[in-house]
Amino acid sequence: MSPVALEVCVDTLEGAWIAAENGADRIELCAALSEGGLTPSFGAMTAAAKLPVPVYAMIRPRRGDFRYSDIEKTAMLHDIEACGKAGLAGIVIGAVDDQHALDREFLAAALESTSLPATLHRAIDTVRDYEKAVADAIKLGFERILSSGQADKAELGMDRLASAVRVASGRISIMAGSGVNAANAPRILKHTGAPELHASCSKPKGDAPAPGISETRLGFVAATGTRDTDASLVQSLRHVMDIHAEDAA
């Protein structure tokens, strides 16, 4: 793995291969990135396990908030089991309770149900007490935290991310994500001290579809078209991250 790790989130197998072949150290495999990322299918997990870099699967049964019912939690535990059977390297999960704190009881059960390492996703950006949630994630045994510092974009949450890195003190990795690109990555890395970055490195796939085609008319494809991982964006981000690591050495 590179001195500063790059995780690329994808929702297609083609995108996963593009990311892996152009500088990503790890893949976050999702379905429906347009909804913030949902659990991918078992078939997608199995195919992605053949990638040359570690693949972590998103465990999120629906769009919306991160307060889950008992039925949803049971489904999530089954999805975690599927990740192990598919041969993936880890999981990405998060949940909060009615008090807007991490749902420690469920997250403990989720992590205890598998030997796979786990990333706590941006559910942490919705909690009331951010510093306590970082401490809770450490106690629960998460490998890393993906966060924007509770801002819309990581670039706007750099102060809180820097605080999280200090609180983590090497006990857990803080991965800055949301709106990360080659232009702002050096600033985010320098200000926060985060050892990892998370980005989609995506752009619109081809021209916007004609409004009259059946897929758009029937609502299967958005009028703005679809997005997918772009090799040049992955390469550009990897490049500036490597330069930052060299300058910091």
Could you explain the architecture of this structure?
The chain has 249 residues and is an alpha/beta fold. Helices cover 38% and strands 16% of the residues. The protein contains 9 helices and 10 strands. The protein has an 8-stranded parallel beta barrel with strand order 1-2-3-4-5-6-7-8, surrounded by 6 helices. Helix 1 links the parallel strand 1 (5-10) and strand 2 (26-29). This is PF03932 family protein CutC. Its main location: cytoplasm. Keywords: Cytoplasm.
Low-confidence stretches: none
Report helical residue fraction: 25-40%
Order of neighbouring strands in the sheet with most strands: 1-2-3-4-5-6-7-8
Instruction: Describe the sheet with the most strands.
Output: 8 strands, parallel, barrel
By secondary-structure content and strand pairing, the structural class works out as alpha/beta
The whole-angstrom Rg is: 18 Å
Pfam families: CutC
InterPro entries: CutC-like (IPR005627), CutC-like_dom_sf (IPR036822)
Keywords: Cytoplasm
Subcellular location: Cytoplasm
